[in-house]
Amino acid sequence: METSHAAAEMVWAPEAFAAKFDREPFGFEHNLSGLGLFGFDNLTALARQYAGFDQDYFVAGSAPTPGTEFYAVPRLYQQPHEALEHLDDAAYRVLLKRPEKFAPDFADLLRHLFAQVVAAAGQLAKEEIVRLESAIFISSAAATTPFHFDPEVNFFSQIEGEKTYHVYPPAAVTETELERFYKRGIVNIGQLDLSKRQISQECVFNLEAGRGLHQPQNSPHWVETGRSRSISYSFVFETASSRARGRARSCNHYLRKLGFHPAPPGIHPAIDALKSGTMQFVIPARQGVARSVRGMLGR
Ligand SMILES: [Fe+2]
Questions:
Q1: Could you tell me where the DSSP H helices lie in 30-103?
Q2: Residues 227 and 283 both lie in one domain
Q3: Are residue 160 and residue 268 in the same domain, yes or no?
Q4: Which domain holds residue 163?
Q5: Centre of ligand 1 from the C-alpha of residue 34, in Å
Q6: pLDDT, the chain, mean
Q7: Which of 75, 89, 209, 275 falls 20 to 30 Å from 176 in CA-CA distance?
Q8: pLDDT of 232-258, one tens digit each?
């Protein structure tokens, strides 16, 4: 029987949520696979609406290896609904970004699911949410998404088919690597070298319909689909404080260049605020960074 999106639910162990939210990955169960919204015909009709909205979708082939650079896998300049017609002919990865912009039912689903996260993570109710969006991933069998991290908290649900999700905790990324990413002050994927991770830190989730995982911000991951077509749904968000931590890391990048050994965000909140405030002004200008940082330090 088809599930109404008002009955859509994610179920996790409350102890795991309390101990691990935005610190370590954990698995959960959900009933989203029963939603008519994710029927393939519905997704094809949705994909047709994306024609001409190039910023809202991404069509690519499979990465040859998990360690391939993310943007070294060529983007395919095909409309998403055309790629969906050929999923069995080649290894395609189709990403439909922000379906809530195109279909009110996806907006309702996103609000409904995010409310469950806010109810579980009490502190979020007091936070300013600066970005909340969902995405649908439709991939051929045996397609690989290469290693990277994203500057956002993620709840990822497998809808159809199998996906093997290899994920590391954010602690597997060094401060220097994070600073190199956040210095740009843009929302993008973070490129990392897979061979520099410790395999002992890797968590592997064997996802199938009804299973999902929580991925903290900055958790590196790579993903492979199984023997058949895969459909996944995720929603991600950033808060004003996570953006501020990113700006503090951006400031630390420049401090390190000047020979300092700055503390990571979270240790000295007042200094973090100063760093973040400086970079809020500096990042858009992208000039005079060293001068501003020197000024801030009085040298
Ligand atoms: Fe990702």
A1: 40-49, 80-85
A2: no
A3: no
A4: 5-239
A5: 24
A6: 91
A7: 75
A8: 999 999 999 999 899 889 888 888 888
